Amino acid sequence: MTITPHAKATKIDLFNFKTPQMRTFHLTWIAFFLCFFGWFGIAPLMVYVREELSLTKAQIGNIIIASVAITIFMRLLIGWLCDKIGPRIAYTFLLILGSIPVMSIGLADSYLSFLLLRLAIGAIGASFVITQYHTSVMFAPNIIGTANATTAGWGNLGGGVTQMVMPLIFGFFVAFGFTTGVSWRLAMVVPGIALFLMGILYYFGTQDTPGGNFKDIKETYPTFQGGKKNSLANFLLVIKDSRVWLLFLAYGACFGIELTINNIAALYYVDQFKLTPATAGLIAGLFGLMNLFARTLGGVFGDKFGIKWGLRGRVIWLSAALAGEGICLVLFSQMTSLVLAISSMIVFSLFVQMSEGATFSVVPFVNKKAIGAVSGIVGAGGNVGAVSAGFLFRGEMTYQNALLVIGVAVTISAFFALLVRFTMEEEKEVGEEMNKIIPQGEKKSELVTAS
């Protein structure tokens, strides 16, 4: 069989597991889902951790920051590694090594040991970069926004499911007679085991590109960018591109805020509305559950705007989604009624995740020779946003006021997104590639449910 790195899929056949493109599609989102499960598995159980370890508000704030801080550096590193060694091996190592601190956090017996293990767990947040990289090399421009948004969105769904499921796993151990202190520790072993097993499955179930792994393609196509020695030079070019940093800011304003809400939502509903941890976890989980379709919508609209108005259209859609997110967060921060708080949170969640999908409908077109580097830097922006927001929750400011400040900042970021520009040559190149894929009169993205 002829090996070619260019046979990208032009549609998504959800129930087709035979092609490498669709196997990658499904295994990437499942792997990312499990990473989210391990990353934020402890968040809905923090009520019990706070009680057992006698944590202060400032210490909880530090833990929130730690959970996302190391991911900044890991995303930068993993993006370069994807360009160098390929997404298959990168994901395998991250899943297997990441499972260790997830299971080990149950050994924490003080604020310091818990903080350090929470910091280590944050490394698995770099999985997002591999997910987006692997999807980007598997799908064509007409569908790339939808594919990226769907794999990331269904992976992010793990953040919502975790809020609901971890209290149930915790309750399972309590029902068997374990104390609350032992139960939250045992509960964290479950996502750790799942991550370890997924690492093995990913290695044997995927390949780097539609045409094979990096090693195979380099032997057949010496000009193929993946794994070339100039990957560091390409990384340096990416760093100099102002568009990358504008998208870095945009992603910080959406994914960074999602991470923040995942960390504080359960505590917010317990303290603000006097709910039980189990009930608060269920409500907080609604925020993440919107990923089932919301991030996909962001990618779908990004593709549609791109097909009709080119790369500039994708940027305009991103700006609009960010503006909607900021306004909705301001409204959510002012809600004193539980019903209105839940309702506004759901609408806010819709715009957060559409903004994420919109961002990564733009990312693959910034520098095609270094998709991993661009994805890594932009992805790290999400964690910088989360760290920045985390500082607001560790001081004297109330959670409500902190959310209000963040909402205003997100709204302002929408205007900066409009500064992302593409040259006429870049627009023309993508337009010509799109015309080869989609005949005139049939310009539409496809998300189908059967092969």
UniProtKB/TrEMBL annotation:
Keyword set, alphabetical order: Cell membrane, Membrane, Nitrate assimilation, Transmembrane, Transmembrane helix, Transport
InterPro entries to which the protein is assigned, alphabetical: MFS (IPR011701), MFS_dom (IPR020846), MFS_trans_sf (IPR036259), NO3_transporter (IPR044772), NO3_transporter_NarK/NarU-like (IPR004737)
GO cellular component entries: plasma membrane
UniProt cross-references to Gene3D superfamilies, sorted A to Z: MFS general substrate transporter like domains
Name by which UniProt lists this protein: Nitrate/nitrite transporter
Major facilitator superfamily (MFS) profile domain location: 24-425
Gene Ontology molecular function: nitrate transmembrane transporter activity; nitrite transmembrane transporter activity
GO biological process: nitrate assimilation
Transmembrane segments: 27-48, 60-82, 89-108, 114-133, 154-178, 184-205, 244-269, 275-294, 315-332, 338-363, 370-393, 399-420
CDD domains found in the cross-reference section: MFS_NRT2_like (cd17341)
Membrane topology value: Multi-pass membrane protein
Family membership: Belongs to the major facilitator superfamily. Nitrate/nitrite porter (TC 2.A.1.8) family.
Localization of this protein: Cell membrane; Membrane
Subcellular location, principal: membrane
